[in-house]
Amino acid sequence: MKTRLNITIEESLLDNVKNYASRNNVSVSELVENYLKKLIRPARKKSIIDAVAKLKKPNIDPSIDLKELYYKENAKKYGF
């Protein structure tokens, strides 16, 4: 069920909002309603798993022993 809402805003802001709504083929009421829905929607936290899943897979030769390579490079760098 829809209900009416009266608000008071600056005239220049209303003109800009009406122009925006006209350009995007929506009503001012739709803009306000969508904005208010967005405000009260609970923030969805981004999961680290989702972020990692989006990463590109590295282009590494599977025959390379990365652990051994790590120790060799550190031995060269730090002299141990």
From TrEMBL:
Superkingdom of this entry's organism?
Bacteria
Q: Which InterPro entries match?
A: DUF6364
What is the protein's given name? Antitoxin
The organism is Pinibacter aurantiacus
